[in-house]
Amino acid sequence: MKIRPRSVQNQGIPTASMADIAFLLIIFFMVTISFEVDKTQVALPKTDLRFEIPKKAAYISVTETGQIRVSSGEEISVPVPGPEEVLSFAAQVVAADPSKPFVLKADRDVPYRYVDRVIDALKQAKAEVIYLLSEQETVDDAA
User: Fold this and answer.
1) Among 6, 30, 96, 121, which is most buried by a count of CB atoms within 10 Å?
2) 75: in domain
């Protein structure tokens, strides 16, 4: 006498949870991604020591040709004609957040007078913290 199974099971891979897994991976990558707001290419000067800069800082870049680009840290950097516009930009950023740090990123071959004009504009706008970016390994503030 042959015994037959009462129900036949379908053989296959269950794919009902695949969409959930894909959705969770997309959310994970969207939350953890960080975009670089200032993509200006400059050859940074070398230093012996460099401190870690905050992630939500405003950026000001000066290229070798003297072109100045600014970003409040929330959007992609845009070019400005000169230091006078840096002053108005920095004043707007300081008005929105008085403790926001500024990162000055200048090419190593830029004449110092351009950098000095930008620093003066930041001082006039009452910027509290100004970082001068350099090429070196970073050191924690606690060390």
Assistant:
1) 121
2) yes
Q: Are strands 68-71 and 78-80 parallel, antiparallel or unpaired?
A: antiparallel
- Full residue range of the structural domain in which residue 68 is found: 50-139
Residue 95 lies in a domain: yes
User: Is residue 1 a part of any domain in this protein?
Assistant: no
What's 79's domain CATH number?
Answer: 3.30.420.270
Q: Tens digit of pLDDT per residue, the chain (143 long)?
A: 677 767 767 777 777 788 888 899 999 988 888 766 666 667 666 666 667 777 788 999 888 888 899 988 888 888 898 888 889 999 999 999 888 999 988 888 888 888 889 999 999 999 988 888 877 655 554 44
Domain count, the chain: 1
- 34: which residues sit within 8 A by CB, 6+ positions away? 55
Strand partners, 79: 69
Q: Is residue 121 part of a domain?
A: yes
Structure tokens at 34: 């960080």
102 CB-contact burial (10 Å; exposed 0-12 / middle 13-18 / buried 19+): buried
